[in-house]
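Two records follow; treat each independently.
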Amino acid sequence: MTHLVPVILSGGAGTRLWPLSREAAPKPFMPLPDGETLLGKTALRAMLLPDVRGLVTVTNRDYYFHTKDVYAGLGEREPRDATYLLEPFGRNTAPAVAVAAQLIRARHGDDAVMLVLAADHLIRDQASFASAVSRAMELASEGLLVTFGITPTHPETGFGYVACGEALGGRAFRAAGFVEKPSLPRALELLAAGTHVWNAGMFAFTAAALLAACERHAPAIAQAARTVWQPLASRTDEAMLEIDAATFASAPDMSIDYAIMEGAAAAGEVAVVRGEFDWSDVGSWQAVSELTAADADGNHGLGERVAIATRGTFIHAQDRVVATIGVENLVIVDTPDAVLVAHRDHLQRVKEVVGELKARGHEAYKLHRTVARPWGTYTILEEGPGFKIKRIEVKPGGQLSLQLHHHRSEHWIIIRGTARVTADDRVFDLPAGESTFIPVETRHRLENPGHDTLAIIEVACGDYISEDDIVRFEDRYGRVAG
C-alpha cells in the first residue's frame, strides 16, 4: 500500500504580523487566539491522516529547538518518528523540497508520496482536507505532480492562481497553467470565469516523480539537491540532518512553483485538486482578527479591552488594559515592548515598520522581550546605560553554554529551583534564595539539574551589555563553531 510522508516547510521573516510575529519567532510559532500555533496545528493535521510514515520538517538551526518544543507541547499528539532537515540559510522552496525528496526516496522508496505543507496555513475542516489528500495520493501514484487549489471567495490580489483544465474526476483537473498574483481587474476576471482557484501552496507527489521533474524542468535544482544529499546519504537513520552551507550555496534561490510546477504544467504533468476545506494563510492582522468573535459594533480582540464609541476595530491586549474611544477600523496590537496602531486599509504596510526597525538596528524587528533559547527562555525586565536585568528560566535538564563575557559581569539570584553553577574551576549548587557573582572574563555555565523549571534573576553590569558579547567554549546545542 502507498504510504504518505508529510513534509512541513517552516520558516519566515515575521514581517506582516509584527509585533507578535518576529524574525526569531515568526508566524508559524505565533500563538493564535486559541493558544495554539499554526505549526502545531499543521503537524497535527498531517499526523491525523491515514497511512502516514513519519514527519519531515525542513527548517533551520535557529528554529530547530523551538519546533521541537512546539511538537512536544502537543502531548500525546506529538509527532512520532519526526525528522528535521536543517538549512543553513533560506533558498526558497524548490531546493528544500528537492532535498526532502532525496531523503524520502532513500528511506521509503521511489513510490512514497510526499505531502508538502506550509507551516503557517490554517485548515480546520480535517475531514474535507483528508478527502482532498486521498484524491491527491491517487493522482500522485499515477506519476502526476499535484497541487491543491481553493475556490476563490473574492478577487484576491495577494495569492497566485491555478487554471483548471481537463476534468480528471473527484474534484481534480489537469492544471492548465499558473497565474502570478494578479491586478484587481485581472482577479475580478478570474473570479467571474470560475475556472481558476487560489494556489494553496501545498503539493503531493512521489519522491521519484518530483526528482524526475527537477531533472526535466530545473536541472540546476536537481544537481544542487544531489550535491547536498551526497554527504547525508549515509545518515538516513538520524533524526536531525544539518545541510552543509558550502554545498547548499550552489542551490538556486527559487520557489517550487516557478522552478518546477509551471514548466511541468505546460507539459501536462500537473493536476490540481480543488479543496472543499476552509483555508487561510493567516497573512495579515485582518485574517487574525477574523479568528475571534465580533461584538455588536464589529470589534474583535483578545485580552482586557474597553471599547467606547469604537467600531470595526481589532485589539490584541497582552499585559495590560487597552481602551479605545471614538475610533473606527483600527488594528491595535499591544505587546510588552512594542505597540502597533494601524488603519485596516494600510495593514499591508506593516512590513515597512519591520524594515525601518531593521535599518535602525533596533532588536524589536527580530526579538521579543521574552526570547526562546534551546535551554529555556530569558525575559528582559529592565535595561539602561551599563546594566540589564533579566529573568532566566531553564528547562529541567537544560544547560547554557560554557561561556565568558569580555565587557560585563553578572550577578545571579536564584528565585526557584536549584542552579548548578560553573565558574572557572568551581562547580557548585545554589538553592532558591541564594546568589552568586560572575566577574568579567570568567568562564561560566548555568544548568538545571532538577525536575522543575529553574528561575533566576540576572543583573548584568558593564560598559557593553549586548547579547553578542559572548564567547562559547562548549555547547550541547551545537552553537559552537566547529
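The next record belongs to a different protein.
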Amino acid sequence: MTPLARLALGLLVGSLAVMAGAEVPERDARGELRVCADPNNLPFTNEAGEGFENRIAELMAEELDVPLAYAWAPQVMGFVRNTLELRLCDVMIGVAAGYGFVQNTNAYYRSVYTLVVPENSDLAATSLDDPALAGRRIGVMTQTPPLVPLRRVGAQVQGYPLQVDTRVRTPVRQAVEDVANGVTDGAVLWGPLAGYYAQRQSPPLRTIPLVDDTTDARLDYRITMGIRQGEPQWRDWLNDFIERHQAELHAILGEYHVPLLDRQGELITPPDDATASEAEEGTP
C-alpha cells in the first residue's frame, strides 16, 4: 500500500471513529410517543394497557397529540441496552432517581417498601427492626433492601426471585398470595407492588408502609422517567408535563393503591370516598 493510500485509510478510520463516538441528536419532532415497557408487569405495564404507567403514557400521548407505541421487552438485566439505547423507544416511565444508565426527569412520585399482612394479623411493624418480626415467616424479594434487616431482626425469611422473565412467572404475586393463604405471616415488598396485589386478594390484605424504619436500609425511592443522555429538550418537556399534571398522576397512582410519600417523607393519606364525594358536590 502506498503512503498516500495509507494516509487516506487512516483518515477514513479516524472519521468513522469520531462518527461512532458522536451523540445522535435528539429528534426535533415526534410522530408518536414510543415507550419502553414490560409486556406483563402489573401494576406498572402490560400489553393490554392495564397498568398505571400505561395510563400515564396515554395521558402523555394525548398531550403530545401523537399515537402511542411500545417497545416491549422483559424488564430484566439488559432492558435499557435492548430498548432505549437501541432507539427503539424514547422514554421509560418508571425509573428510580439516580439510576445511572439513563437521564432522569424530575420525580413524579415517591413510595416506600411496605409490609403486607392479613387483615386480622397482630403484626403491625412500621420498622424493620421491630422485635415483633422475630420468628415470623416473612416473604421478601431476593437482592432487595429489606432482606438483610429482616434477617438481622430474626425473621424467618422466605425468598422470591427478583430477576425473572415476567412473561413466564410473577414471584411478587406469589409472595402476596402466600400471605393470603397462610404460608407466610407477611411480606415486605416495594410499595406499588404491595398495594396492588394486596387489594386483589379476597378478602384484601392490610398494607403497612414502613415509614418509621430506623435501620440502615434504604426503603423509600423517588420515581422518575428515564430517557437517553443528551436530550435536554425532551427532558424539559417531560418535566413540564410532570409539574402540570402532578395531581392527576397522583390520582392515577391512588387508584392502584400505591402508598405515596410527600417531599418530607410523610405518608400522603388519600381522601376517603365520603370526603371525595362531598368535595365534588360542594358539601361543607
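Discussion point: The first helix runs from residue 3 to 21. How would you locate this feature using only the C-alpha cell line?
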